[in-house]
Specification:
CATH architecture of the largest domain: 3-Layer(aba) Sandwich
Helix content: 40-55%
Strand order of the largest sheet: 8-7-9-10-11-16-17-18
Shape: rod-shaped
Largest sheet: 8 strands, mixed
Number of domains: 3
Number of helices: 26
Number of strands: 29
Strand content: 5-15%
CATH superfamily of the largest domain: Response regulator
Distance between the termini: 160 Å
CATH class of the largest domain: Alpha Beta
Length: 867
């Protein structure tokens, strides 16, 4: 055995690894096998080495692939195949990956445009799913011999530069820990873990990242509204990393995980944890279960534990579609209607023809093909080099297998892309003159690192006419297919393409829902919710200690609405609208004001009209009998002024009824204040006249000169003018205006007159109150003067009623809202003015109309003066 330089170069020195017992143990433990049980070995297997197939060339591409269904010691126990660390079982899907590898190499070698005068060779190892066999395969590549020689590089010149593999993220990681230390660029055709590219700078992945698959799962759940799910995963690092990313994204999108069950990789507790997972599934109300993990433990879990679990929609991650299709024909009812996220299929021109030739007329020395046919259908090769063919115990079965090939290439497509990206990088190196010299160990090291540079910058169009290249994280941007598991009539499960996920599309997830066939347990699209969505008009209210998907429905408050299902919040209605009784929409608020169309407004209008009629009649009587002693004795001018002001006050009531307008708001309180001031001033003039006339009869009284009508008229004008000035100031400073009040009465818009300056309003009202109090006091003083007809007595009583009405009005007015406030004011106006009209003028009208004999000259005396 030759050394790689002047002396044998220890492998540990090349890798710059410390010669610690732990490291040495790692290398040698990786080579150890557990048993020589012949049930587990492939036929004619004479050594513990991984099966391999090679072809020489100027540059060798090493492949560490998963070709046969295999397991290491721990995995075998899941399928009741103990004491085995070898490849067992067969897989047509994995065999196609291997043949795609060979086909891509042959295409490059047959091309005159790429790598001219350079022949690519290959050395393919089958590591299955065993990390032990994967490490052993890497050691074979590094030492350069059929049997690995740990700690030595045995060939002076080596042709192997790149390594292609593996399908699984966990095995890719195991391989990368060695290839990266020694500088081999590595291209994985199936590893999704995005952390690999960050950990190993020489590692590249021809599939999308794990995070892209997580996004696809999240969008699939959101599309169907599945917010209540369970998760089954396996106890490997890659699966745990993916589940961590998945849960973080679920939390962001308010998707809740009812249970997370981990299938143990330790056979000692595998059964216990699996039964615990089954119990959680049965006790849960979820209808959707996500499986994210490696296939072998999942196969054992399904075969041993879930016989009685039906009516669930399973969502499986990339790589499980072929396993379920091939391994679970008896579990069609359990997987029927479930979904799988897979690497998107692609075109490989000419590959199907190559596949037919390679599988029917096998490659004579290809150990993988020979074992596949022998294991699957009892076939063996005739070993006739002129025309090799298969002799099979079951010709129908293998012909049906090949003829029914779906021509859907997924990982075959990604491994095909891996070889094409690699060949393009090598071609660019060849054009730069870097592949012309014999590959000594020194030159080979340089070429490996230079190849890494070209791989980082390579870009080309694949057969599907899309650009492929490695991004900064070392993986290609890619897409996923969404498959539907459908149980066929022959008790087999088939995969139906029902959607896709595109990483660069504006709408990433595209689903053909009409193509999905759900499990017969569901009569419609399955639902998986902790709580049914709240109906319109209600919002979700989270309960303490429960997940966000588990809530109770609470009806929206007044003035809020929720017009859809599953509303998290209620929306406030616009100011001019209000929620309807079911709280699912907003309707126009009804306008609230005192109108003639309602009984209250109409009743007050009728009363005002009657009082106007009565007041007008009294005025007519006084005008008609103006020359009679009674009318003349009571200062007819003040009587006329008072009657006109009372009638005008009754008319003012109509300014308060109906829809408020700018004009009516300006006139309401100001006109009311001035007219009331005139009325009260007239009464004050009457009482003052009576008091002056009585005191003027005393001998030597100087009040006699003030006993005429000029005093009373001047008093009315003076008192009314003060109120007028107050109102003018009010209108100039802060006039009343129309206001829409949406707060006072829920669900109603009060149309009202805002008084503007509330201070000026109360000053105007207070001034009228002061006039009324003075009138009452003077009338009270004059009530017992010795007259035949003493008007002061009637004024006293009428002012007592007037003041009582307005004192009662104030608290009532302040405690009411909207039209009722207006009605209270109208009632106060009508009641107080009606009292004045009744108690001051009815006694006089009684005498004028019914007792005319008392309305004669000499019968009426006013403070000692005979009329």
């Amino acid at each position: 055995m030759e050394r790689s330089s002047s002396e044998e170069e220890p492998l540990f020195a090349v890798l710059k690894l410390p010669k610690s017992p732990a490291v040495i143990l790692l290398f040698f433990a990786s080579l150890s096998l557990c048993s020589n049980d012949l049930r587990c070995k492939l036929p004619d297997s004479e050594s513990d080495s991984p099966m391999s197939y090679s072809r020489d060339g100027d540059v060798i591409v090493a492949g560490i692939l998963q070709i046969l269904l295999t397991h290491d010691q721990n995995m075998v126990d899941f399928l009741d195949t103990p004491n085995c660390d070898y490849c067992v079982g067969t897989s047509y899907e994995y065999l196609k990956h291997f043949l795609a590898f060979i086909y891509a190499i042959e295409e490059i070698n047959n091309s005159t445009e790429i790598l001219p005068n350079i022949t690519l060779g290959f050395h393919v190892y089958d590591s299955c799913t065993s990390d032990n066999l994967a490490v052993k395969s890497v050691l074979n590549i590094i030492s350069g011999t059929e049997e690995p020689t740990p700690n030595y590089i045995c060939e002076k010149t080596q042709k192997t530069i790149p390594v292609v593999g593996h399908l699984l993220s966990s095995t890719t990681y195991t391989i990368a820990r060695l290839t990266q230390l020694y500088g081999y660029p590595q291209i994985s055709y199936g590893a999704l873990n995005s952390a690999l590219g960050r950990t190993f700078p020489l590692l590249y992945q021809t599939v999308p990242s794990e995070l892209s698959q997580v996004h696809a799962v999240i969008q699939l759940l959101l599309y169907f509204g599945w917010t209540w799910v369970g998760i089954i995963t396996t106890e490997d690092d890659n699966s745990q990393y993916a589940i961590k990313e998945l849960k973080e994204q679920m939390e962001k999108h308010r998707i809740c995980v009812d249970f997370l069950s981990i299938i143990s990789m330790d056979t000692k507790v595998y059964r216990e944890k699996s039964l615990k997972a089954v119990k959680e599934i049965k006790n849960s109300s979820v209808n959707v279960i996500i499986f994210y993990g490696t296939e072998i433990p999942f196969i054992g879990f399904m075969e041993s534990c879930v016989e009685n679990i039906t009516g669930k929609v399973w969502i499986t991650a990339t790589g499980m579609d072929g396993t379920i299709k091939n391994k679970f024909p008896n579990f069609n009812q359990k997987f029927n209607g479930s979904l799988a996220i897979t690497i998107q299929r692609g075109k490989i021109p000419g590959f199907f023809k190559f596949l037919l030739q390679a599988t029917i007329y096998t490659i004579p020395d290809n150990i993988f093909l020979n074992h596949f046919w022998q294991f699957s259908f009892g076939c063996y090769n005739t070993q006739d080099s002129s025309r090799p063919e298969l002799i099979c115990a079951n010709n129908t079965a293998w012909k049906e297998l090949v003829s029914n090939d779906t021509r859907i290439y997924r990982h075959s497509y990604t491994i095909y892309n891996a070889i094409y990206l690699l060949s393009e990088a090598l071609h660019q190196m060849h054009q730069a003159g870097l592949l012309l010299e014999p590959l000594s160990l020194h030159l080979k090291d340089e070429l490996k690192y230079k190849l890494n540079y070209y791989l980082k910058n390579v870009s080309l169009k694949n057969p599907s006419d899309t650009d492929i290249f490695f991004n900064d994280q070392g993986y290609v941007q890619g897409n996923f297919d969404i498959l539907n598991f459908v149980a066929s009539s022959n008790m087999r499960i088939t995969n139906v393409l029902v959607g896709s996920w595109f990483s660069s599309a504006p709408k990433q997830l595209q689903i053909n829902e009409s193509a999905i066939v759900w499990n017969p347990c569901f009569t419609e699209t399955p639902r998986s919710l902790c709580t049914d969505p709240c109906p319109p008009g209600c919002r979700q209210s989270l309960e303490a200690g429960k997940l966000s998907c588990c809530f109770k429905c609470v009806q929206c408050n007044d003035g809020e609405f929720a017009n859809g299902t599953a509303s998290e919040y209620c929306i406030s209605c616009p100011d001019d609208q209000w929620s309807n009784p079911t709280r699912d929409k907003c309707i126009k608020r009804p306008l609230h004001f005192l109108s003639y169309e309602e009984d209250l407004g109409l009743s007050l209008a009728i009363i005002a009209t009657i009082l106007i009629g009565i007041g007008s009649s009294v005025l007519w009587v006084f005008i008609k009998y103006r020359n009679t002693p009674l009318v003349r004795a009571n200062n007819c001018n003040l009587s006329y002024t008072l009657l006109v002001s009372l009638i005008t006050c009754f008319l003012l009531s109509f300014l308060f009824i109906g829809h408020p307008q700018e004009v009516t708001c300006l006139m309401r309180q100001t006109t009311f204040g001035v007219i009331f001031a005139v009325a009260i001033s007239s009464i004050l003039g009457k009482t003052t006249t009576v008091l002056i006339a009585f005191n003027a009869t005393k001998p030597g009284s100087k009040l006699r000169q003030y006993a005429g009508s000029r005093t009373s008229t001047g008093l009315v004008i003076l008192c009314s003018l003060a109120e007028f000035l107050i109102c003018i100031t009010w209108l100039n400073y802060s006039p009343p205006f129309v206001q829409l009040d949406n707060k006072s009465i829920p669900g109603t818009t009060i149309v009202q007159c805002n008084e503007g300056s509330i201070v000026t309003f109360y000053v105007a009202v207070s001034y009228i109150g002061i006039l009324a109090v003075f009138s009452f006091i003077i009338a009270f003083i004059s009530r017992k003067l010795p007259d035949t007809f003493n008007e002061a007595q009637y004024i006293t009583f009428s002012m007592l009623v007037f003041c009582s009405v307005w004192m009662s009005f104030i608290p009532t007015y302040l405690s009411t809202k909207g039209k009722y406030m207006v009605a209270v004011e109208i009632f106060a106006i009508l009641a107080s003015n009606g009292a004045l009209l009744c108690f001051i003028f009815f006694p006089k009208c009684y005498i004028i109309l019914l007792k005319p004999e008392h309305n004669k000259k000499g019968k009426i005396t006013v403070k000692g003066f005979k009329m």
